[in-house]
Amino acid sequence: MPESVPGEARSRATARAAGALLIGGSILEIAVMAHHPSVHAHDLATVLVQLRELSAVSAWVHGVLIALMLTVFFALTEFAWQRGITRPAIRAGLIAYAAGVVAMMGAALVDGFVTPRVAILAAGLGAADLSITAQLLHLCIIFNQALARLGAIAMSAAIIAWSLDLLRRAGLERALGIAGTALGLGCVAALIAGVLQLDMHGMMLVLVLQAAWTIGLGVLLIHHPMP
Predict the structure, then answer these.
(1) Per residue in 14-51, pLDDT tens?
(2) Torsion angle of alpha carbons 184, 153, 206, 220, nearest 10°?
(3) Rg of the Cα trace of the chain?
(4) Which of 2, 11, 84, 123 sits at a 20 to 30 Å CA gap from 92?
(5) What is the C-alpha separation between 50 and 55, in angstroms, rounded?
(6) How far is the C-alpha of 43 from the C-alpha of 189, rounded, in Å?
């Protein structure tokens, strides 16, 4: 069939583009996360001041992180399509990763936009109102942590599902499958057991580990055509 060659060439070009997006997006996620602002205070008044001062930076960092998460997810949909969206493991992984992205976006919105806004609105309030503000900030932390944990677990479950499918092959695909299965199971177990806390350091660890896998997948998409 004369049309099959151009079609195959387009498919490989799309895979290479998706691979480049995975590598670039994953690296940028780590770089942006490294600029995540932190509050270093214990008394409420100082915390509110720092949150207000960091509100613009926090909005930019979390906004860019959301955009990068969607970029990586877009590239992963191409992997799922080329790998075979009708395969149960591939489809399950895509659903789990989508759920993880939605949860992580929620965590980013709370941390980057809602929490600083609470601090801004608290400017000039009296002692009684500040007590309510403290409770609101605590609620924001609860929402952020719950959404971040759900997102990290769902994304890890997706990596496990896709890695189990990659184990069926040999070479780089099998190696990536082994690494992804171990990485995903380790993250899920550590989060459920409470060994891994998603503070700044914990979130960065999860991001780096997951990025290492998606970068490996990007290399695979660039150099090895999907079946």
Answers:
(1) 889 999 999 999 999 999 999 999 888 778 888 888 99
(2) 50
(3) 20
(4) 11
(5) 8
(6) 34
Name the residue among 154, 156, 120, 160 with its Cα closest to residue 136: 120
Model confidence over 41-85: pLDDT tens digits? Answer: 778 888 888 999 999 999 999 999 999 999 999 999 999 998 888
| Res. 226: pLDDT tops 80 | no
Residue length, the chain?
Answer: 227
- Mapped to the 3 state alphabet, what secondary structure does the chain carry? CCCHHHHHHHHHHHHHHHHHHHHHHHHHHHHHHCCCCCCCCCCHHHHHHHHHHCHHHHHHHHHHHHHHHHHHHHHHHHHHHHHHCCCHHHHHHHHHHHHHHHHHHHHHHHHHHHHHHHHHHCCCCCHHHHHHHHHHHHHHHHHHHHHHHHHHHHHHHHHHHHHHHHCCCCCHHHHHHHHHHHHHHHHHHHHHHCCCCCCHHHHHHHHHHHHHHHHHHHHHHHHCCCC
Q: How far apart are CA 155 and CA 120, in angstroms?
A: 33
Long-range CB contacts (< 8 A, 24+ apart) of 23-27?
A: 23/214, 23/215, 23/218, 23/219, 23/222, 25/68, 25/71, 25/72, 25/75, 25/214, 26/72, 26/210, 26/211, 26/214, 26/215, 26/218, 27/211, 27/215
End-to-end CA distance of the chain: 19
Asked if residue 180 has pLDDT above 80, the reply is: yes
